[in-house]
Amino acid sequence: MREKKINRRIALGTTAKVATAAVITGVVGGIAGYLAGSSGAAPREVTRTQVVERTVTVGGVGQTVTETVTRTATQTVTAGPPPTEVKPELTITFASPEWLPGRLTGVIAEGFPAWSKANIGKAVQVKMDLIPWDAIFDRLSTTLAAKSKEPTLLISDSQWLGQFYVGGHIRRLNDIIARDPELQQLLNRFDESLVYFYMTYPQGNKDNIVGFAHEGDVLLMVYRHDLFTNPTERENFKAQYGYDLPQRYEDWYPGQLDWYQVRDIAEFFTRKAGDELAGKRLDEDFYGIAMHMSRAYDAIACPFGSLLYCHGEYWWDPETGETDGFINSPRARQALDFYKSLVPYSPPNALEIWFDEANAVMQAGRVAMIYNWAGFLPSLFDPAASKVYNVIRVVPPPGHKGEDGIFRRYSGIGGQPMCINSYSDYPEVALAFIKYWFQPENQRKWAEGGGGVCLRDIIQTEWFRTLTPYNRAYADSIAFQVDFWNVPFFFEMLTVVQEEIHAALAGTISTSSALDNIARRHKEIIEREDYPRAFEKYGKPAKNVAELIRKGLPIG
Amino acid sequence: MSTHKGMPPLSYRLFPVLLIIPAVSLVIFLVIFPLIWALGLSFYSYNALRAEPPVFVGVQNYVRLLNSVEVWKRFVTTIQFVVLSVSIEFLIGFGLAHLFYVRFKGRRLAVTLVTTPLLIAPVAVGIFHRYLFDATFGVYTYFANLLTGGQVRFLTSLPMFAIVWMDVWQWSPFMMLFILAGLEAIPKHLMESSQIDRLSALNKFRYVVWPTIRPLVALALLFRTMDAFRTFDTIFTLTGGGPGTATEVLSIHIYRVAFQFYRTGESTALAFIFLVIIILLTNVYLRLARRE
């Protein structure tokens, strides 16, 4: 075998070429990285396009004329003066889901260096760490388990509070609040149900305030107003079901529209391609309702929770941890049977529907109603994304009158508080940001940009209620929100619900078996965790939500 | 440069050791140490998110897992997925390899195109199959509806078919490449002799083709089986393990126990059981390959 000799000249030449290539690659990569970093920086403004409508009713002698004026408005929230005016002396990180409220928080946070310089004597920059919804729990929990000092501030979904607090990862704020009259005053401005489910562990126990409500979110009904007000459809519906289709906001709320009426409506509007709908021949199938039924995360637990509560039942007894006779009670079975009975009136991908899929089918103009989170509704009103942007309305969800004659209206709560990382070196800076966040000017920007305001005195103003097509429904719905468990083992409880009910919806198991399985598996988890005994040191939930729901009483 | 005993000097003998120390240290630090640590952890009751110290429970985690109906269900699902996907991939890969063994115009381009799925990130494969299988807007659904005249819901009614299809779509070309490499390695004179001797197609395959491609087929099957066993990302993004738990394979279950439920001790025990299964399977394959 002949060996090829490499002389020193060739070796040096090759080395020089490799080195040159490495340097060039480094320089080009550096420039590209810099540019990418610049373009990937947090946006300085968030724009929300929506339809603004005004209904004018003119009553004359013997006649009433109702005219709806609709126009498209683009609302842009900017950060104000460029942040370069105040040079930051310190940077903290704020971890948030990657969605409109997260981006908007980043825009509002751009004013913090100037505010913090003036108020705490140090210019602090808040850098957003936006994490996709699918990954945020894993990211935050692993980061906190590693006792990372950043993010200083983090958005925690309401049900994560117990896990993060019991693990010692987020700060208890009571001692700080007790020393700060401004924070005490702030605490009184939140709606009670938000304090109950967003800010305390155990739920409603004000001895452990572990966060401040940041993004309020509720499940709302979006419906095709053009179809509901079409004279032929109205006439046909009344002939078939014996009552009128809801036409006005008040028919839904405070009117006592029942979930079973919603099912009638869904059945009525479910049509095949070739059928007629509001005087037009359909090219594609049209569906009655799109409810969340996906296996993902809490996609089933929240809407099914709404139905469960409206049927007068809760997941468990939060005081004793008992599940038998709660989640598998006759009322719970009725609720699940009802949930499943909506599948035939849903799009074929019913069992994959979560917020995106629900929006997609509504935006395509192929469904009469959707039940979706307020936080995801803005795109429905964007003419560039939605075929129905100008013919839809948003209303609070219905309730249900049980066999006991009580009309119950509850809904599964969404939304998130902001919490302070226990391992952060800058808790006082985080608190300063919380105060900054609730400044009137910032709350105005938050509301105008489409954020879910949590302060009662703002939510109930006429300005807020008419700011977006969904704010009124959002404001009216806050009071009847209910959450599931926020205990440290919530994820296992949640996964059991998602698995069993998804299987029941798919027809793999019966609804009765699904609920019996949930009760059994939940019981196993609760016994293994030694609940409530092992968690008594953290206090008890303020109220027995199960009892209140069974009696049809408000929670907050 | 020799010592009095004919041995090279110590510095000369130590030099190779010095060279491999960084790599070995990295392997010890990043692979061996965590593996031993995890093995130790599997004997503890420990939740990484709780502020509580680990409690030694002996083999309790293993006993609980091996007696768990839920775990066995996931195991059966995993076996179904592995057997179905690997065998179909083998058949398709085998067919494609024979197709591309024949020289024709545009062969190289065709091979490149067929192997493209291998280059796509598994998460992307899962996400776009979710769109393809979507029961309202999906392309697969559209054609299936046309063919059957009904409403096909792949992800609800045929979830195992959907995940196997996705895996076959991505990994059949891998089988094809291995088998094609084996076919290309058959000496030309053997093929010519078989033609001169007028061997039947079956005998030609049995006595000429199979002995040459056998080691590569065994290797491809080994790789694919191990890979299919630990499939996570594609299934997680396509079905999330649903409907219910119909497509929840062991790797997804381990992920949930470890990073959603934070039953850290139990999840490491499950991961070790999983590891033992894969090692056993690997040995079975290797023994079979050697015996043949």
List the helices and strands and how they pair.
The complex is a heterodimer of chains A (556) and B (292).
Chain A: H1 8-39, E1 45-60, E2 63-78, E3 90-97, H2 100-109, H3 112-120, E4 124-131, H4 133-145, E5 153-155, H5 161-166, H6 174-179, H7 181-187, H8 192-198, E6 212-215, E7 219-224, H9 225-228, H10 231-241, H11 249-252, H12 259-269, E8 276-277, E9 280-281, E10 287-290, H13 301-310, H14 330-341, H15 355-363, E11 367-373, E12 392-395, E13 400-401, E14 407-408, E15 411-412, E16 416-420, H16 427-437, H17 440-449, H18 456-459, H19 462-465, H20 471-477, E17 481-482, H21 490-506, H22 511-529, H23 545-551
Parallel strand pairs in A: 3-4, 3-5, 10-11, 15-17
Antiparallel strand pairs in A: 1-2, 5-16, 6-16, 7-11, 7-12, 8-9, 13-14
Helix pairs in contact in A: 2-17, 3-16, 13-14, 21-22
Chain B: H1 10-41, E1 44-45, E2 55-56, H2 60-66, H3 69-101, H4 107-115, H5 122-133, H6 139-148, H7 154-157, H8 159-184, H9 188-196, H10 201-229, H11 233-238, H12 250-260, H13 264-291
Antiparallel strand pairs in B: 1-2
Task: Put the structure in a nutshell.
The complex is a heterodimer of chains A (556) and B (292). Chain A is of the alpha/beta class and 556 residues long. Chain A has helices spanning 8-39, 100-109, 112-120, 133-145, 161-166, 174-179, 181-187, 192-198, 225-228, 231-241, 249-252, 259-269, 301-310, 330-341, 355-363, 427-437, 440-449, 456-459, 462-465, 471-477, 490-506, 511-529, 545-551; strands at 45-60, 63-78, 90-97, 124-131, 153-155, 212-215, 219-224, 276-277, 280-281, 287-290, 367-373, 392-395, 400-401, 407-408, 411-412, 416-420, 481-482.
